[in-house]
Every structure is written in structure tokens, then in C-alpha cells.
Amino acid sequence: xxxxxxxxxxxxxxxxxxxxxxxxxxEDSLExxxxxxxxxxVVASCFIIVAGLFLYxxxxxxxxxxxxxxx
Amino acid sequence: xxKNWWKILSFILLAYTVIAGFLIKVxxxxxxxxxxxxLYYHVCMWMAMMTMFIISCVYSIMYLRSSKYRNDIxxxxxxxxxxxxxxxxxxTGALWANYxxxxxxxxxxxxxxxxxxLIGAAIALLIYGAYFVLRGSFTDLDKRARVSxxxxxxxxxxxxxxxWIIPRMVGSLHPGAPGSDSGNPALNAQKDxxxxxxxxxxxxxxxxxxxxVWIATLKIRYQLIKDKSLINE
Lengths: 71, 233
Prior knowledge:
The complex is a heterodimer.
Chain A: H1 2-25, H2 39-70
Chain B: H1 5-23, H2 42-66, H3 69-100, H4 109-113, H5 116-136, H6 141-169, H7 195-226
């Protein structure tokens, strides 16, 4: 489990590094976030909040499931 | 995992609500303009709240029929989540009203404070608030469960008259009132709600309701573990 987590964090770190190099190139795909009065930025942040809420609920759900199995 | 499909469905529906809710074209109505998109959030809070209170009332009746402590736990947690959603709906409604009702020249803060819909919703929430005060005042578990179950049924009986019936019998700025020429019910097909908005609104109601049920079940499962010694099954 611990080893998997280490591998995963290295992998995610590598992904993040590649993202910063994309930002310097100003690719067309990133222009979406700058168009249309930057509404897409708001959409993205709302989506992150919803996704975060669900992740949080999912983690609590898993914790309670574990407790239910123990009892 | 097979039993959890509705949690994933809830996430998909709410992700769709947030993305499509902001991007789909809406009819441009005077005063309200783009804020009509609040329909996917503000109205859904009330829809989910009503579902929670209906479930809570059913469990209260089931408690009175069976005297099983388990049913009391279900009833109180569904009522708690419902009250929370009601407060969220009230807050978002206050924000929305601040930018739509107050911009009209003939409207002042005084006329908004007299709004029957706001007063009705506040009465309904206060009645449910009293439910929790009542529960807290008992030390005896059986007595608490029995009296609060009876009170919960009374609170439910007051819910729909105070949030739906009375506001529609008198003039109101809120959609659905006789004076506001927005028709009855509030979701008028010709003027307020076009087919594209329905495409987002109905999934949004289902998504928010499923999320509230999920939160309620989490609270219930937690309390079932905590009060394990009290439940004799």
C-alpha cells in the first residue's frame, strides 16, 4: 500500500511537471479557459467543488463501512 | 459496490448540472436575466428538503407502529438533513431576491420582508427547529422517540400549507403566486422554463435529492454504530 502510494505520487508529480511546460507553450487547448468572458473558469471551479464534496462523502462512506464490518 | 450505483448516478447528474447549467442557453427574461440559472440550485434545495421531510415522516409513522428505536434514528437524521437543505435554500433565496426583487423601482425592503413565501418557509423551518429542541429536552429515550415522532407528523402536516398553499392564496413576488402573472404552478412552460432548461432542471432535482439521501444514510449508519447497544434487533 505504502509503495503503491509512493509510485502514484511520483507519477502525479511527473504529470504536473509536464503541465507547466504546456502552459509555457500556450497551446490552443488552453485557450478554452480564456474565451467567452472566462465563464469556463467558473464552471471548472464549481465542478471541482462538486467533485471534492463527493470524494469527501465517499471517504466517509468507506470509513463507516469499515466500522460496520468490525462490529 | 452493486448497491452503490445511485451514488455514482448522483455524481454524474450533479457534474452534468454544474457544467450544462452554466453553459446551456437560457431565455433572457427582464430583471432576472442570467440569474434564472439559480433554478438548478436554489429550487433543487427545496425539492430535496421536501423529499427528506417526507421520508422522515414515514419513518416517524413506522416508529409509532413498531416502537423500534432504529426507525427513530432514521426519522431524526432525515429531518436533520432536510432542515439543513432548507437553510441552504433560504440563504440562496435571500441572495437571489436581493438582486432581482429589490432592483424593481416599486419594491422596497419592506415589501420583500412581507413576502408570504419567505414567511411561510421560515415558519416551516422554525417548526422543524422546534422538533430538535423537543428531542433535546428529553432524557428518557423511549419517551423522546415517541413524543418527537408525534410532533414530526404534526410538523409535516404544517409543511406544505406553509410553503405552498398559503403563499399561493395571497399576492407574492415569488413565481407561482396569483398576483405575479407567472401562472400556477411556478414552472410555467411558456414563459419561465423552456425545454432546454427542463433538460437540466429535472436531472438536477434527482441529483441533489440522491446526494441528500447519501448524506442522511451516512449520518444514520454512524449513529447505528454508536448506539449499537440500544438497538435490539
